[in-house]
Design brief:
0% strand, 53% helix, mainly alpha
């Protein structure tokens, strides 16, 4: 199992949303959770002109990729959310974990906003390390 360590300090939701916005993540709270999540994940792949490809490489469950899920009528559930987010954080689905809900309980109990923040910072840090020699 891969070991990832992320630090976090709690902030109020408004501050978290402002920090996300300053990092380029536009979370429109008038959209559905699924639409907000799609916008968030697509922003994570800022180095792709067409973000459909990286979405198609992430799993929602054993039969469905993320792009197919976003194009479907299925609702965003906590299990789908955590399954995708853990992949964004570098964990391998079906290798490091199979059940996103059980895995989050085993790791840490964090809200959606906290996970958004951690994931966005992780992605930007990794991207900057690749682009800056």
């Amino acid at each position: 199992m891969r070991f990832n360590q992320f630090s976090y300090y709690p902030v109020i939701q408004q501050q978290a949303l402002q920090e996300l916005s300053s990092l380029g993540f536009k979370i429109d709270q008038s959209n559905s959770d699924k639409e907000q999540f799609e916008a968030f994940v697509r922003t994570c792949f800022f180095n792709y002109k067409n973000t459909d490809y990286p979405l198609s490489t992430l799993a929602v469950d054993k039969e469905t990729d993320l792009l197919t899920f976003f194009n479907s009528d299925r609702e965003l559930s906590a299990e789908i959310f955590y399954t995708v987010v853990f992949q964004l954080l570098g964990f391998s689905y079906l290798v490091d974990f199979e059940d996103g809900l059980a895995f989050i309980k085993k790791q840490h109990s964090q809200s959606f906003t906290e996970i958004y923040l951690i994931t966005s910072i992780n992605f930007l840090t990794r991207a900057l390390k690749r682009e800056i020699p």
